[in-house]
Amino acid sequence: MTPTHSRLETQLVHAGEPDPPFAGAVEMPIFQSATYRYAGERGYDDVRYLRSHNTPTQLALHAKLAALEHAEAALATASGMAAISGALLGLLNPGDHLLAQSCLYGGTHDLLTQEFENLGLAATFIDADDARGWERALRPNTRAIYVEALTNPLLQVADLRAVAPFARAHGLISLIDSTFATPVNFLPVEHGFDVVLHSATKYLNGHSDIVAGAAIGRAELIERIRHKQIILGGALDPHAAFLLTRGLKTLALRVRYQNESALRVAQFLERHPAVRRVHYPGLASHPRHARARELFAGCGGVLSFELQGDAQQADAFSARLRIPAVAPSLGGVHSLLTRPATTSHAGLSATDRERLGITDALLRLSVGIEATDDLLEDLAQALA
């Protein structure tokens, strides 16, 4: 493998790449093979096989992901939910209890509320903004704490500096979904987190053409997750791994532009009389703006907002837009708009959404890499 490089931009291009390169190839080749000849491996997990996450294309990607997060090891999976479910099921045992941030991505919320009980697991939702209350939620069988760097879709910023010290003090594993932040804006391992999770479908790949996930962190914990994933079968195929590796190389360029563009869009929307509220931690009006500035190099390319109207008016506004596609997902080169009540958080009851502040009229905008002025003009005509 190539030598370690200290700067992110160089790591994105070179980390994990073979040195010397295979047959002189500048780009890491795709090893489109599921099966490899037996080479004397003694353990089941060590046999070279695609489902074991140990083929050359996968291993090169793992090395790059670990370098980007300043972590010991990484594992790429078939989706973001494969990474999240594999991590929680790999690190928790029946009878264990999890502390989880109250406002989570809908798929994660469904895992904790609909599947955990069937697996003999329990979860308690906590206010991740208030570390003083976490200890009251502890049980003798609590084994881990789970938060998001920036929450989906309200862009809340938890007390992230307090999570790892709290976990260490109580013998817990700390996990964070850092999809919205990316390694460009935030490095959880440097703040003491044990496992960092990503839906690599989003920013890491950046082109809306694959589904993938990643679990990154302490080598011993990642190996436990890998073992569970070998059993569950959530391996990333070689071609998707190649596309993810390729997408990563432009991550810094894309995310830094999206940081700037999203901030301008948020400022425009906040000033517009047709907009009731904007959720974006880069705005001075955000309740955790000061915390975000301390933690993050940028606040990312996702924001959410509510118009002065109901869900029907929100849908009518969406239909008038010309540049953003009305579609789920986020983090790609295309701007995407969605109404979370009908997509990412449709699995929550209306009561739960209301409790969390996810109104039926809330819109989430993922800012792509189009010209910011074009996006502003499009938003203005749709609002008019």
Order of helices and strands: HHEHEHEEHEHEEHHHEHEHEEHEH
Strand line-up in the sheet with most strands: 1-7-6-5-4-2-3
Provide mean pLDDT, rounded: 95
Which residues form runs of ≥5 with pLDDT under 50? none
Provide the CATH superfamily of the largest domain.
Answer: Type I PLP-dependent aspartate aminotransferase-like (Major domain)
How many independent structural domains?
A: 2
User: How many helices?
Assistant: 13
Percent of residues in beta strands? Answer: 5-15%
Would you tell me the structural class of the helices and strands?
Answer: alpha/beta
Straight-line distance between termini: 55 Å
What is the CATH topology assignment of the largest domain?
Answer: Aspartate Aminotransferase, domain 2
Q: Say how many strands there are.
A: 12
The portion of residues assigned to helices is 25-40%
- Quickly name the level 1 CATH class of the largest domain: Alpha Beta
Gyration radius (Cα, Å) is 21 Å
Largest sheet: 7 strands, mixed
How does CATH name the architecture of the largest domain? 3-Layer(aba) Sandwich
The coarse silhouette is globular
Describe the structure.
The chain has 384 residues and is an alpha/beta fold. The protein has 2 domains: 8-248, Type I PLP-dependent aspartate aminotransferase-like (Major domain) (Aspartate Aminotransferase, domain 2); 252-383, Aspartate Aminotransferase, domain 1, CATH 3.90.1150. It is 36% helix and 15% strand. The chain has 13 helices and 12 strands. The strands form 2 sheets. It has a 7-stranded mixed sheet with strand order 1-7-6-5-4-2-3, with helices on both faces. α6 links the parallel β5 (173-177) and β6 (195-199). The mean pLDDT is 95.
